[in-house]
């Protein structure tokens, strides 16, 4: 869901300031730890920790490490960083019990002063605290992104899938760039009705800069980090972010005034608002932030899914062949697959499910926060605990899946029903994302073979490794592969359909 920029990890702070901040936090953490442990409450099992720092040394939390830990400690694990408790839910059952059945207590979001106030993302739907603002923004996005409303964006999404195919034909080596462009152009069109026509689009440049900086601030820079460079970094991030959301908002308002606005989420929200003839600053702020959130929320997640698909196809050419047989039989070779073909392409569908299983784009979900103390399986979960759902591990649960590291779409075919990665209950962009990812997968399979790269020295195929860069999203590491048109006839089909 969110892009990180590792270059921001190197914030320079004087060692003295750092040591002082570190000492204060360690003492505060130790005090909280002492207070909690002396109350004789029983918590979920924890890995060994440092007295003062808690589990800080094992940060950042890595889902691979947590998956290993679950094997010895069980499916619910308690960790603590400077006295901040966190619960890791390693099975779908535990996640359902708390996040769904007791959702009223666990739907809040944690926020930091840095992200929430200094960078001003505390009003964004994905980070806003549970309350009126959250409910208003959820209502907005649900109203215009529900399954029926999302269907009206299918022509624009189909167009983006065609641009992707055309770009892959022209320059297959840059497949990651083309996939990113498809994903961002689709989300920007949905949100603001704006067409991204070049690689140097003003809104995209701002969105990439603001989003990567804001996310890096959460991933790499603790909110208590002092120092002038940290503050100036936060100021710059806020400037970029405000510019990103306000400039896009104002542009759509101007387009509405001049009668040139294209259909979009924001256009519909403004239309409804204008009908009320009211001036409601709070409502305006909610429209600004609900839409301002979409780029960060929607681009990288879909992109990771499609890049993972390419990776898995390059490792499993027999899957590509089987999918192509299905597409040729159902759709033919005179046209590209459309959403109407989807119900008749069960194998393509199972490939998509297996992509989400083998590499869930948000492997630890987004953090939730408990509002009140709770008792679950006789163990205490304190108020203000962060909850992380280890979706990576859930998708490898041997109760449901065998041979979990194997890319095996057949496991999802009707006879072998297994639960897939279910971002459907929680992500408001799910219907839109589902169509974008499906269109990319089906269109690429229809016209391209995806093969391992060839080693220039030995002349042998080199299947890419299934390796990822852990972060909020789990991007596949850079890899090479060959994306070749299936035949001259398929080249003609691309040229004819994708202009
Ligand atoms: C394959 C692509 C996607 C995946 C896997 C995905 C998954 C998720 C997940 C797991 C969450 C967190 C749910 C939770 O807190 O428990 C989420 C939240 C969210 N997603 Fe998506 N998402 C995708 C694409 C999109 C798209 C395209 C959009 C917008 C057009 C979008 C908008 C959002 C928003 C606004 C939130 C925050 C919702 C809230 O806090 O209530 N997502 N998504």
How would you describe what is shown here?
With 499 residues, the chain is an alpha+beta fold. The protein has a single domain, classed as Cytochrome p450, CATH 1.10.630. Helix content is 53%, strand content 8%. The chain is built from 19 helices and eleven strands. It has helices at 15-37, 63-73, 92-101, 103-106, 113-118, 132-145, 147-151, 154-170, 175-192, 202-219, 228-258, 265-276, 281-292, 294-315, 317-330, 346-358, 391-394, 430-447, 488-497; strands at residues 76-81, 84-89, 368-369, 374-376, 379-381, 386-389, 448-454, 461-462, 468-469, 475-476, 481-485. Strands 1-2-6-3 form a four-stranded mixed β-sheet. Strands 8-7-11 form a three-stranded antiparallel β-sheet. A hairpin with a 6-residue loop joins strand 7 and strand 8. Helix 11 (228-258) crosses helix 13, helix 14 crosses helix 16 (346-358) and helix 14 (294-315) runs parallel beside helix 18 (430-447). The chain is globular and about 70 Å long. The chain binds protoporphyrin IX containing FE (HEM). Residues 1, 125-126, 138, 141, 187, 190, 293-294, 297-298, 301-302, 305, 361-362, 365-366, 423, 426-429, 432-433, 437 line the site of protoporphyrin IX containing FE (HEM). Its cofactor is heme. Belongs to the cytochrome P450 family. The chain crosses the membrane at residues 12-33. Pathway: Secondary metabolite biosynthesis. Pfam families: p450.
């Amino acid at each position: 869901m969110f892009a990180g920029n590792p270059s921001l990890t190197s914030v320079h702070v004087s060692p003295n300031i750092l040591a002082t901040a570190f000492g204060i936090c360690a003492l505060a953490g130790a005090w909280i730890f002492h207070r909690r442990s002396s109350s004789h409450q029983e918590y979920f099992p924890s890995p060994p920790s440092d007295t003062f720092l808690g589990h800080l040394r094992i940060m950042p939390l890595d889902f691979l490490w947590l998956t290993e830990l679950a094997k010895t400690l069980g499916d619910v694990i308690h960790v603590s960083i400077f006295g901040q408790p966190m619960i890791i839910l390693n099975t779908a059952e535990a996640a359902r019990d708390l996040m769904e059945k007791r959702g009223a207590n666990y739907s809040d979001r944690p926020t930091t002063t840095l992200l929430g106030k200094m960078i001003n993302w505390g009003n964004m739907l994905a980070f806003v605290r549970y309350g009126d603002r959250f409910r208003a923004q959820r209502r907005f996005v649900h109203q215009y992104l529900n399954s029926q409303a999302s269907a009206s964006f299918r022509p624009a999404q189909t167009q983006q899938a065609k641009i992707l195919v055309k770009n892959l034909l022209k320059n297959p080596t840059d497949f990651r760039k083309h996939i990113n462009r498809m994903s961002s152009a689709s989300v920007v069109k949905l949100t603001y009705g704006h067409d991204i026509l070049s690689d140097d689009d003003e809104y995209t440049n701002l969105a990439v800069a603001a989003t990567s900086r804001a996310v890096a601030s959460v991933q790499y820079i603790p909110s208590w980090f002092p120092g002038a460079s940290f503050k100036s970094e936060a100021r710059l991030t806020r400037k970029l972010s405000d510019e990103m959301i306000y400039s896009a908002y104002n542009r759509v308002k101007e387009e509405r005034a001049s009668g040139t606005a294209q259909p979009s989420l924001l256009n519909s929200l403004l239309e409804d608002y204008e009908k009320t003839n009211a001036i409601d600053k709070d409502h305006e702020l909610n429209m600004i932030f609900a839409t301002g959130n979409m780029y960060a929320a929607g681009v990288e997640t879909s992109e990771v899914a499609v890049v993972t698909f390419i990776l898995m196809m390059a490792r499993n050419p027999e899957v590509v062949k089987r999918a192509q047989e299905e597409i040729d039989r159902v759709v033919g070779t005179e046209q590209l697959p459309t959403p109407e073909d989807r119900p008749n392409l069960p194998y393509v569908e199972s490939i998509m499910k297996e992509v989400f299983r083998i590499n869930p784009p948000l492997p630890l979900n987004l953090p939730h926060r408990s509002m009140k103390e709770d008792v679950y399986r006789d163990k205490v979960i304190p108020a203000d605990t962060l909850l992380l759902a280890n979706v990576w591990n859930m998708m490898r649960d041997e109760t449901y899946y065998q041979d979990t590291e194997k890319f095996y779409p057949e496991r999802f075919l009707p006879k072998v029903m297994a639960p897939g990665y279910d971002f459907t209950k929680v992500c408001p962009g799910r219907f839109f994302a589902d169509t974008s990812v499906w269109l990319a997968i089906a269109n690429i399979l229809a016209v391209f073979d995806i093969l391992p790269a060839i080693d220039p020295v030995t002349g042998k195929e080199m299947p890419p490794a299934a390796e990822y860069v852990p972060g909020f999203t789990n991007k596949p590491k850079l890899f090479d592969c060959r994306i070749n048109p299936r035949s001259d006839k398929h080249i003609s089909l691309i040229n004819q359909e994708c202009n």
